[in-house]
Structures are given as structure tokens and as C-alpha cells.
Amino acid sequence: MNRALLDWAGKSGVPNLREGLSALLVEHRKEFKVANSVWNRVRRLMRDDGVDVEGAAAIRLRAVDYLTFSELGDLLLELLAEAFPRAAADPKTMPPLKERWREQLAKIRRLRNRVAHLRNVDFQDMEDLVGMVATMRADVDTFAGWR
To answer: How big, in percent rounded to 5, are the helix, strand and coil portions of the chain?
Structure first.
């Protein structure tokens, strides 16, 4: 739709209409992203539950409780270097670790969705889940900063 609008504005013959429309679309897109960001959605949910979203950092840590599994996985992948500082220190370790976690979180997400939508889960799915969790736990033990 944006491309069609910009093409129309360019063909309309009005000087600078295309540039003005492009600037307007960019401005509204930025406002939409800010208003509909994950953080703003979580803040709205927390406010609805009576949590002081402007309070101390300890209270804001509860924001994790309001994230979906998918959002939580994306956040973890984004902050993987902070979660696993020993892996981040070694440039050869971090890329395979991040790829492994991305793949395992995707598999867990698919399994979670199958269960949530009441689809059949077979024994092999449970075996795979146990193996993935064991691997992820070993990564935490090996690369986490608190050890």
C-alpha cells in the first residue's frame, strides 16, 4: 500500500507531494512502533494489574512475567552475550551457542504451540524436549557468569 501511495503521489503532478507523503508515512510508522512496542504493551498490562510501572527497578523486573514465550525467547537471544559472558569472551564459542539456542527455542516454541492448541504430542517430542533442556542447562552451567 505504501508503494502504491508513493507511486500515486509521484504521478499526481503536484510538486513535492511524493516527498511529503513519504515523510508523513515515516513519521506515523515511528509513532506506531513506539506506541505498540512490546515494552508499552507490557506496561499497559502491568498497569491493568495495579503494578507501579514507574517504580523501582525490582518491580520492573516483573515485566518478564508479562512476556509471551516467543517474546521471552527473542529477548534471551538478544541478550545472550550478557547471560553467557564466558561464551561472549570467546568469539568461536558464541556463534554456535547462539544458533543452538535459537534452534532449540524454536523447537520448544513449536511444541508449546502444539500443546496449547490441543494437538497430539508423541513420545519422541518429549524425548527431544528432555534432550534440549539438558543441553540448555549444560550451557548455563558452562557459560553463565555466576559460576
So the answer is: 75, 0, 25
